[in-house]
Amino acid sequence: MQKRPTKTKGQEENRAWKAFSRYVRKRGESFDGTAECVTCGKRYPVEGRGCIQAGHYISRRFKSLKFHPLNVWPQCYNCNINLAGDAVVYRQKLAEIDKKLPEYLESFMATKVQPKKDDWVELQSAIKEATALGYDDAPILAWWVQFMCERAI
């Protein structure tokens, strides 16, 4: 019997991103199957063609914030891609949620992390738990705190 090849760290990170992106979009879903873009306020379907995306306030190239649930919100294609995230408006919207939120997130930009393959597997478990809890960010935030403590360099 052949063994199934194990997934690489990059493959696990991609799987975690797909799960996290879906989580963010579903977290913002309303009863009609749409979610509101954090920057422009227009509504888009959560799934399917032309659906809302999971847009980052601080770019996902900053690995320390790529999976932070307070850094990623539903965002339409136009705002996320064509307007490169529309950071000025995004910052204003986050400040409406909590006036210290933009500064809190920005404080982690300089933090470098060295993720391991198991981090992405553990994140996928945290996402499943958060989904089961009705899109409660607590399990993902707990994963993120542990991730930062163990992987920050």
Q: Which terms would index this structure?
A:
two-stranded antiparallel sheet, mainly alpha
Overview of the molecule:
- Helix content is 47%, strand content 9%.
- It has six helices and four strands.
- It has a two-stranded antiparallel ribbon. Strands 3-4 form a two-stranded antiparallel ribbon.
- Strand 1 and strand 2 (43-45) form a beta hairpin.
- The N and C termini lie far apart (41 Å).
The H-and-E topology, N to C, reads as HEEEEHHHHH
Oligomer: single chain
- Portion in beta strands: 5-15%
Give the overall shape, derived from the CA principal axes. Answer: globular
Main sheet properties: 2 strands, antiparallel
Q: What structural class should be given to the helix and strand makeup?
A: mainly alpha
Helix proportion of residues, in percent? 40-55%
**Number of strand segments:** 4
From the alpha carbons, calculate the radius of gyration and give it in angstroms. 16 Å
Uncertain segments: none
Which strand order does the major sheet show? 1-2
- Provide mean pLDDT, rounded: 95
Alpha plus pi helix count: 6
Topology diagram in text:
Layout: H1 9-27, E1 34-36, E2 43-45, E3 53-56, E4 72-75, H2 77-82, H3 87-97, H4 101-106, H5 117-132, H6 138-151
Antiparallel strand pairs: 1-2, 3-4
Helix pairs in contact: 1-5, 5-6
In short:
The chain is mainly alpha-helical and 153 residues long.
